[in-house]
Amino acid sequence: MEATVRWTGLSGMTFLAETGSGHAVLMDGAPDGGGRNLAPRPMEMVLLGTGGCSAYDVVLILRKSKQDIRACEVKLSAERAEVEPKVFTKINFHFIVRGRDLKPNLVERAIKLSHEKYCSASIMLEKTAEMTHTFEIIEDLDMPSEHALTKD
């Protein structure tokens, strides 16, 4: 895996990050640190990436478990150390999973597997941060199932 992060100029603290897969994203610093608040902070990107990594796993595991999952959202809240380096010290992942007849034990198992075996990002961050996980299941009767769209 490769990436390039390039400072965009002499004023401000905006950086352009380009991934090896050909995608780009801006990052910026807080105004009190010379940034202009034009884009997410680098540590916010770390948190976003961790949420994406874990949500990806949960959806994949639930699909493989033949669960009728229709949506997955993860809300993250994090605390950082007061002094440098300001590493994450606590991160809570709250999953909101929508579907039909989702089994709570399988949702819980998917989250556990993600955080103990598959999500590289959360496993790395676990070295400095206390990780907690909560979830809720919302029965989704309105949204058509992926399976219903393909049946004939």
From TrEMBL:
Segment forming the signal sequence: none
Listed Pfam families: OsmC (PF02566)
Matching PANTHER family: PROTEIN YHFA
Entries under NCBIfam families matching the protein: PRK10738.1
Name of the molecule in the record: OsmC family protein
Organism (species): Undibacterium parvum
